[in-house]
Amino acid sequence: MSMKIVMLESAEHDLKELKNYIIKNFSVETWQNSYDKIKTSILNLKTFPDAGSIPEEFEKLSLSQYRQVVSGMNRIIYEVRLDTVYIHIITDTRRDLKSLLTRRLLRIV
Fold it and tell me: What is the pTM of this model?
């Protein structure tokens, strides 16, 4: 069964930040390679939505509905609901996820 993919606004924002960071610190070519890997990983979720693991940070909070796939040096954090995969976060693997989530919560309030 093929799942529907929904990229949430938060993930789109993450992708733009990631693009700016990679281009500024590395190159456009590095960004394009990273972006291609991210797109491929997201497309694979259409067919294999349960392929990802539960992120350690979420598991500690008993939030087992969230999963992640690692794509190159990036994490894609998503949630599967019925026939839809919701992409919540796209971030560099070296980035502290707890800090990212805290900032995101503060931005909402």
Answer: 0.87
